[in-house]
Specification:
Layout lengths: L7 E7 L10 H11 L3 E6 L4 E5 L2 E6 L2 E6 L8 H9 L4 E11 L3 E9 L11 E6 L8 H4 L8 E6 L5 E7 L2 E8 L6 E7 L2 H15 L3 E4 L1
Antiparallel strand pairs: 1-5, 1-6, 2-3, 3-4, 4-5, 6-7, 8-12, 8-13, 9-10, 10-11, 11-12
């Protein structure tokens, strides 16, 4: 049986002159409705706007955004919606990633627009741990989280589950912990926050004892 890991991710780069940070609240309500994700909390810093969603993260900078979800969101629907809202030339490049399990996890990537722009995102570290026992989010992992970041958001789900976002300028860390009996998963992604992400990853392996581990 393949491990159950369903996280999808959409990364977008917009044309110069547009600023996502200047968009009103109604814009974000409609955007999350189109993507079929639900806002739990939102916070703003000078260079980034962060939305903690149900099983999802939406991180926004002036000319780009990243949306990932473990739920049933319709992420690709955002590309035509943004073009309708902001102009046909609004989205310069897009990258849509979905998981594929063969003997191990790999990510299937669909590129749209100018692929040469995508490296401007910088390198990203990804870790996925699946197949561990149902439990609360460990206190030992909570203690490692970067709570002093410029933006830090967290949410505990009932009865179990946990999500957090941390942002510092262009650097970010997202963590989603879903210990469901039909498919437990911890997903950790970071750009920057390398020491914190590595500490969380190493501690997670020891505490959760997963059956499958993926890291890039």
């Amino acid at each position: 049986m393949k491990p159950l890991y369903l996280e999808k991710k959409l990364s977008l780069i917009l044309r110069p002159g547009l600023s996502l940070l200047d968009q009103p609240e109604a814009f974000w309500r409609e955007l999350t409705s189109v993507a079929r994700v639900r806002i739990l909390r939102q916070d703003r810093a000078p260079a980034v706007r962060a939305f903690l969603l149900a099983e999802s993260s939406l991180l926004v900078w002036r000319d780009r955004l990243m949306l990932s979800t473990c739920g049933s969101g319709e992420l690709k629907a955002l590309v035509p919606w943004l073009r309708e809202k902001l102009g046909d030339d609004a989205v310069l490049a897009s990258l849509y990633e979905t998981p594929e399990w063969m003997t191990e996890l790999s990510l299937r990537r669909e590129v749209g627009g100018d692929a040469a722009l995508l490296p401007s995102w910088g390198s990203c570290r990804k870790a996925v741990l699946v197949g561990f026992a149902r439990r609360d989010f460990p206190a030992e992992l909570r203690a490692l989280l970067p709570r002093d970041a410029e933006v830090f958001q967290e949410h505990d789900f009932d009865p179990v589950g946990y999500s957090c976002n941390a942002c510092e300028g262009k650097a970010y860390l997202t963590l989603h912990f879903s210990p469901e009996a039909e498919g437990s998963c911890l997903s950790l992604e970071s750009r920057g926050f390398e020491k914190v992400a590595d500490a969380i990853f190493q501690a997670s392996k020891k505490l959760l004892i997963p059956t499958n581990v993926y890291r890039s």
